[in-house]
Amino acid sequence: MHLGVCYYPEHWPQERWKTDARMMREAGLARVRIGEFAWSRIESEPGRYDWQWLDDAVDVLHEAGLGIIMGTPTATPPKWLVDSMPDMVALDRQGRLRGFGSRRHYCFSHAGYREQAARITRAVAERYGEHPGIVSWQTDNEYGCHDTVQSFSPAARDAFRLWLNERYGDITALNEAWGNVFWSMEYRGFDEVELPNLTATEANPAHWLAFRRFSSDQVIAFNQMQVEILREFSPGRDITHNAMGFYTGYDHHDLASDLDVLGWDSYPLGFLEMFRFSDQEKLHFARQGQPDIAAFHHDLYRGCAKDERWSVLEQQPGPVNWARHNPAPLDGMVALWTLEAMAHGAELVSYFRWRQAPFAQEQMHAGLLRPDGEPAPALGEAQHAADIVAQLGNVGQPVRQAAVVFSYDSEWITQIQPQGEGLSALWAVFDSYRALRKLGLNVDIVPPHADISPYALVVIPCLPIVPETLAASLESFEGQVIVGPRTGSRTIDFRIPDELPPGPLQSTMPVKVTRSESLRPGLEHAGDGWAIARWLDHVEGTMEAELVAKDGAVASWRAGSRRYLATWPLGAVLDEVTSRAVSEAELRAIELPDGLRVRRTAKYTFVFNYSSHKVAIPEAIAGAPITGLRELAPARYAVFAAD
Amino acid sequence: MHLGVCYYPEHWPQERWKTDARMMREAGLARVRIGEFAWSRIESEPGRYDWQWLDDAVDVLHEAGLGIIMGTPTATPPKWLVDSMPDMVALDRQGRLRGFGSRRHYCFSHAGYREQAARITRAVAERYGEHPGIVSWQTDNEYGCHDTVQSFSPAARDAFRLWLNERYGDITALNEAWGNVFWSMEYRGFDEVELPNLTATEANPAHWLAFRRFSSDQVIAFNQMQVEILREFSPGRDITHNAMGFYTGYDHHDLASDLDVLGWDSYPLGFLEMFRFSDQEKLHFARQGQPDIAAFHHDLYRGCAKDERWSVLEQQPGPVNWARHNPAPLDGMVALWTLEAMAHGAELVSYFRWRQAPFAQEQMHAGLLRPDGEPAPALGEAQHAADIVAQLGNVGQPVRQAAVVFSYDSEWITQIQPQGEGLSALWAVFDSYRALRKLGLNVDIVPPHADISPYALVVIPCLPIVPETLAASLESFEGQVIVGPRTGSRTIDFRIPDELPPGPLQSTMPVKVTRSESLRPGLEHAGDGWAIARWLDHVEGTMEAELVAKDGAVASWRAGSRRYLATWPLGAVLDEVTSRAVSEAELRAIELPDGLRVRRTAKYTFVFNYSSHKVAIPEAIAGAPITGLRELAPARYAVFAAD
Amino acid sequence: MHLGVCYYPEHWPQERWKTDARMMREAGLARVRIGEFAWSRIESEPGRYDWQWLDDAVDVLHEAGLGIIMGTPTATPPKWLVDSMPDMVALDRQGRLRGFGSRRHYCFSHAGYREQAARITRAVAERYGEHPGIVSWQTDNEYGCHDTVQSFSPAARDAFRLWLNERYGDITALNEAWGNVFWSMEYRGFDEVELPNLTATEANPAHWLAFRRFSSDQVIAFNQMQVEILREFSPGRDITHNAMGFYTGYDHHDLASDLDVLGWDSYPLGFLEMFRFSDQEKLHFARQGQPDIAAFHHDLYRGCAKDERWSVLEQQPGPVNWARHNPAPLDGMVALWTLEAMAHGAELVSYFRWRQAPFAQEQMHAGLLRPDGEPAPALGEAQHAADIVAQLGNVGQPVRQAAVVFSYDSEWITQIQPQGEGLSALWAVFDSYRALRKLGLNVDIVPPHADISPYALVVIPCLPIVPETLAASLESFEGQVIVGPRTGSRTIDFRIPDELPPGPLQSTMPVKVTRSESLRPGLEHAGDGWAIARWLDHVEGTMEAELVAKDGAVASWRAGSRRYLATWPLGAVLDEVTSRAVSEAELRAIELPDGLRVRRTAKYTFVFNYSSHKVAIPEAIAGAPITGLRELAPARYAVFAAD
Ligand SMILES: [Zn+2]
Ligand SMILES: [Zn+2]
Ligand SMILES: [Zn+2]
Fold it and tell me: Which residues are noted in the entry as substrate-binding (chains A, B, C) (predicted)?
């Protein structure tokens, strides 16, 4: 694994660049990521390119021995470009402009902008495609950041109509598929279809799902356009893009299939603060991050990536500027996060960013250097991590134990139709992942078309659309299976299947869901130390009731190695079902103490302490560590030889 | 009373229709409600009518012995119609389009759409007006659903100006009436008046009240237009419309005066979840509904309806799709709700809907059948209810005990000017109704112009505009009277009356309100087991202080049979004042246990158990029930012969 | 000090005016404020002036012996004027119209409206400029009320571009100053700059700060235009304007420099309800107002005003209409508030308003008279206050003890970039003020350029931009100094200074902030009875740790008479640091009981009881009061001769 850093030479005087490059190397960094917001410096006037400064920067970095990851600058088109075609920006769901003045001010469907993005990509690729310092390319930056995948512009509407025409062929097929007879929503032609926003009340969920798919496809096409240009002008270099945390605006399985390496941007403290963790967790892990956040995304994006090649393109190095509250990580966390990425198989961890810029939107975002150019606390941690990374070398293949199945349309469906406030497929997956991780297991997060044969246990927490391939692979799968609520509950066009949920999975388990309830928080059916909460499926079939509440409501059903969880995968009931299946799968579970997490590779067993107190590593992980202690201080880790 | 069901033949294959009709009859249903969203199937292209399918459906249903309630399809104009006049849709208060893609996408003031609505109404009425299967008509569907009465479109603005001209005659009268000298808001002509939205800060409350009245009048006129056409082409059939729960967007007294029967749509679980009940109540009654929700609307709409003819046009049969959380009713609740409607005098209870559609917006809304065509739990309950309904026959006239006075402009006024956050005339009425119902009383909810002579007690919880007719009938009324805060506090044009509140009621009680305070929750004046909260009127006059807080603040004043409640009608202080007045009215009060409710007719006494535990019926209701037990299980009811 | 009242003769029949004037005089009032919303009555048609009624009103009031404060009517342009140039209204941040129908419906940058405002100002000034009854002028009314300083209209955009051009001279300077290289935000000319709203994600904070400065400058220029006209036509009369509570939309230091007297509008109960006090405080002081609200603004605006000449132009007399909840003040509070303004040096307290209008937006706002013309409770209190005011005469110069430094750009910066949710410079100042006031001290709130030599203690709670003048005056200042977090953390153009925070203050204290954390509520470092919360600066330098938390985190640093507070000025840690500095400053502190407050002038010591229970005045204030008792009932005050 390499370490790297994000760098903006255009922010600093040219005379500083050599010092920076030297300091990077001294800190053990091998990669530097540049260029992705520099359009206005590369082309300050239409067609007037200024390459000199960037040539110089590339040379300085290359000569210092750093491998360069070059970004295309398409996330930040300059003002003159926007002024030349003002309709290139997106409109939000309320119809308001999302104009110039920050970043990501473009609509993916605007043909004119797509041409301009191709032009600048070609210009950069031509200039540096064969430069020996360039080791890989990044397309754009964080597609979808600031909720920018969906655009409600005229350009998007026109493109959506074409996309629908291509998908459905004739309008009767669309009307039939969506059930538009309901409420007289039938169209006579594709040019009658509008975007699903600004309707008097909610639009047809099938309409929304199509729009979500379309919006995702526009991102994929925009990215493909860049990938093709880069492959032409810079053959042999890896192409990557940086995904984000808890983000499902586009289908990452699709995107990754066009990339060599999938990257992501890891901000454990910011994510803890901004996403749906409890206030108690937000306090308990305020300076570490909840212990599954980083690992979840490592495993999610490894599961998306071609050949499981993935990296961390941005690693939080200190306080950030964008969360509601922005504390500093505990001393040691930056190194711990780095080693944890390694344990999950990253190719690269690149810190964001080299030096804190004293101006503009991210002035309160820490770097490895302070704004005054002196080392910030993270620099020493990066250096420490670099030493350990070098010492450990290749970590070997991941150990396969359990798989959790996720598809992006699952989350789109639960967002479009939660049925119970806040119920989310993504978070059902996260919670299922966490339940397994608390037992010390390796968990892969895989798409529905994945090969599940290597696993002893497969969990499908909430997968409304079950492709036939998954139904088929489950039929021949011999391990344990847990299927959660809403799985198999929708056809490809957002209809309830004729045979009722779980649809095609009825071939692998004898269950039919005849009625579903969503339950307000507090409306529970208490069991023995667990409870049915938030959701309850009533079923028919021949499965046996396994977990039965005191009032007779059934939380989970089983038939041999198959379990159907009839309530939302959450809390103690999830832990109970998970541990039963784990035990029958004969996986080596360890009840981990609060904040401890384990990751196993062919060569090593890694143990990480996310808690804010000292924790002894359980005896089940035997022997003396290669690095670290058996009693781990907060924000410390240990590495053992694999047993 | 009849039972019925809502049915969408256009959703299902024609070959299924006969089966459906037979199953309806077997379940004891006599009525079927169809057609109200079928415009795109009736007229798929401008002027091209396709009657065949609907002719067939009507015949199949009629031949099965079902009486048909036919709806006009004006709530869902097809896309081609909207495209032919895009300005027919409403704009919301923020000026945003409320476009096509769901339903109710029209502005009541758009003359072009009103013509088109008349045209389609005439076409349907001509076609089926004399068909023997048609027993009644429903106009449109749920006027105002999704907050669609108020439109801020140019069409609405122009119509508002005409309406004002008609009401005020000259602009000086309007300026004077509204007090437009304040803040230089004076107009020189009606064409200078804008809609009251998008003002720099809040508009004149008189401006808002006029706009609310205008908006209501537009609904009434739209409905009248349809009623006239239906009367012309289908004489002798009843005309109805389905009102909603806790909804005050238009004046239902006005609407009902043009109808033969007023219907409403009863969703006790959805309403509990979505309206302002406490979290505790939402949990306690999650699968039953708070026990006064259904009854309140039965009595409210009976009070609106001509000759007290009313029905339930949609009855919740299971989980719905539109509340924040959507649990299933307890077994038995569907039957209980049905019998309760009977006890309150309904002509019809029609379940919504026959079969759960597996597509579009309401795919998670239960029916009597599941999506796969098999019986859902509610089908059996409907059948049971049909048996009991048949057994009981005519229930006889309601017993008159107490009346609560409500007018729609009361709620408009408290919405426009709450003065204390969340204070609402509608909810003051609901809470007063509940206080009486907990004492086992029959309560009528009546308009200010009602004949109050049959009652022993009249409660006026919050009626800012007191018409002279009410002041006059109170002067000669000999029963007990409770008058609540803000009553008589406004003139017809939203001014404080010269004589101060309670305005014209000073002729019936010697009290003048000189100062009103609104109090934040928690700011209370404690009395003996009760408290002054949320509101406190300071008064002059010769009434005697009846309920005096420990610090001397006066909660209620009395003079003979008249009481003035100087605090908000809420909680223990409301119970205390109510029970004193009930006792002096010599009404037979019963302190009902939690969740039990009673309704008396000339022939029967009905008892309903809304609680989730077993409850013994109080001894005050003596003897053996005709149906049911003296100890009621949850979701069970008993019927006694009237004593 | 004079007492006065706001009066709207145009609301009442002319035959009542004499009665009103007589009653005012009988109540001891000497001033009457009129005219500020009367444009539609002065000029009912374009160019047609109707002066008669206003001439009469002025004469009636003058003849009764009242001095008139005449307002220009520019806050309420009439409809015909708006219709003649519809683009004169502001647009809000979402791009929505802020149209006619209430007040303040104009954009400060609209040249056409500025001309019209000048025209009507000139007309009124010409008419009454030399009238002997006119003692002073008020420009417009409450600039910025209803959030009307910022406008996002085309007029504002164009004016902003000119303003930027004037400030930065060439666009490269602006790009450099703002750091626009970040995210390719560079402009090629001023006409490429947009307003900072409707950007895809947040705009550059430097962009926002410039827009806030520009928006403030537009207010100042609009006011200057009126001031110049008034000085021309009415020389020798004072010119004033009424500022608001907790309001920072424009720079009041700038505005006040063009006025003779700065007024403000004091609504202690409304402000308590609407601003960020705890629920507990909102209940505890519901009918008094939190005891520092009025005093804080008295001292803030005295610090803004030229020669410290200030007044209360609107004093709450009873319940208002605009807060979430609107209780009545305790008996006595109106008099107490009046005397407290006197104690802080007001020239005038003018009650708002004479008689409650029964119509339009403020119909629920109390006056000295009820809507029916009878005395409301406040009339008697005003009369009582008038007697005491007369008895006390001139109160003498304020005693100088401590100063708190505030600048308006401080609050703009923390609003633009809170970094931790809700952190605010204004409230840091308020809390620091309160901490000193609880010790019985006189506190001046001063701008950064103020002369600080008279004070024994200077507190700078949060002043991101530290002008060189302040750094210089601190260098020679010999008293105690407390500097709070974020002070000196930004340059004039919203950049982190090269030398890191506290920037120029490093010349007066040896400290450099190397890292700042913001902490979610609950994430605390406990000390001995205090805690570090919400913010933590990590520092370098040679200051000595003074308050150290149990875990070693440092709350405050000191070096001789200088203290650096490294956490947010809040709660017990603020009290602890404050009381240490106060003690070293040898100021006479008194630990005041709950709700008691003290104010000292050269001649008197005033004591006010804001609590709702009886309180004994501490022995430290010795002797018998001139008025009042040593044991103060709720809402009562005492005045002692100065010791
Ligand atoms: Zn290498
Ligand atoms: Zn019949
Ligand atoms: Zn005087």
Answer: 103, 141, 322
- Residue B548 placed within a domain: yes
* Interval B293-312: pLDDT, tens: 999 999 999 999 999 999 99
Domain-ending residue, one of C146, C176, C207 = C207
**Which-ligand-closest: CA of B66?**
2
pLDDT at B643: 85
Q: Look at C200 and A321 and tell me if their CB atoms are within 8 Å.
A: no
Structural domain boundaries enclosing A454: 402-584
**Which residue out of C183, C416, C489, C538 would a mutagenesis test of the A interface target, given it has the greatest number of A Cβ atoms within 10 Å?**
C183
The answer to whether C515 contacts A376, with C-beta atoms less than 8 Å apart, is: yes
| Phi/psi at A512 (5° precision) | -135, 125
How far does the CA of residue B360 sit from the closest CA of chain A (Å)? 5
Assigned domain for A474 exists: yes
Q: What's the domain count of chain B?
A: 4
Q: Do A371 and C496 touch (CB under 8 A)?
A: yes
CB within 8 Å of chain C, chain A residues 165-204: none
Q: Give a yes or no: residue C191 inside a domain.
A: yes
CB–CB contact C41 B201 (8 Å): no
Q: Are C523 and C489 in a shared domain? A: yes
* Among candidate residues B544, B559, B584, the one where a domain is terminated: B584
Residues 6+ positions from C475 with CB-CB distance below 8 Å = C507, C508
Active-site position among B36, B142, B381, B524: B142
Tally of CA atoms within 13 A in the half-sphere of C302 that contains its CB: 23
The C-alpha atoms of residue A334 and residue A366 are separated, in whole angstroms, by 12
Q: Which of C78, C89, C282 sits opposite B184 (nearest CB)?
A: C78
Contacts of B333 in chain A (CB under 8 A): none
Mean of pLDDT over chain B: 98
Does C359 sit within 8 Å of B178, measured CB to CB?
A: yes
For chain A, the average pLDDT equals 98
Query: Is the separation of the CB atoms in C555 and C565 below 8 Å?
Result: yes
**Residues A482 and A557 both lie in one domain:** yes
Reported as a single tens digit per residue, the pLDDT across B499-554 is 999 999 999 999 999 999 999 999 999 999 999 999 999 999 999 999 999 999 99
Interface with chain A: mutation pick from C93, C94, C184, highest number of A CBs within 10 Å: C184
Residue A495 has pLDDT above 90, yes or no: yes
8 Å CB contact of B200 and C105: yes
Q: Are strands A604-609 and A637-641 parallel, antiparallel or unpaired?
A: antiparallel
pLDDT at A643: 85
Token code pair at residue B500: 């101060």
Q: At what angle do helices C154-168 and C205-233 cross, to 10 degrees?
A: 100
* pLDDT for C75: 98
Q: C32 C-alpha to center of ligand 3: Å?
A: 12
Is the predicted pLDDT of residue C401 greater than 90, yes or no? yes
Q: Nearest by CB to C520, which of A10, A282, A359?
A: A282
Residue C4 lies in a domain: no
- Asked if residue A606 and residue A579 are part of one domain, the reply reads no
CA separation, residue A21 to residues A138, A344, A347, A389, B195 (Å) = 20, 28, 21, 20, 64
* Partners of residue B44 in chain A, C-beta under 8 Å: 186, 188
Task: Please tell me the predicted confidence (pLDDT) of residue C643.
Answer: 85
Query: pLDDT tens, A440-472?
Result: 999 999 999 999 999 999 999 999 999 999 999
Q: What angle do CA B484, B488, B494 make, to 5 degrees?
A: 125
CA-to-CA distance for B391 and B388, rounded, in angstroms? 5
Q: How many CB pairs under 8 A join A and C?
A: 173
Q: What distance in angstroms lies between residue A4's CA and the mean position of ligand 1's atoms?
A: 11
What average pLDDT does the structure give for chain C? 98
CA of B23 to the centre of ligand 2 (A): 17
pLDDT in tens, B101-124: 999 999 999 999 999 999 999 999
Please say if C314 is a catalytic residue.
yes
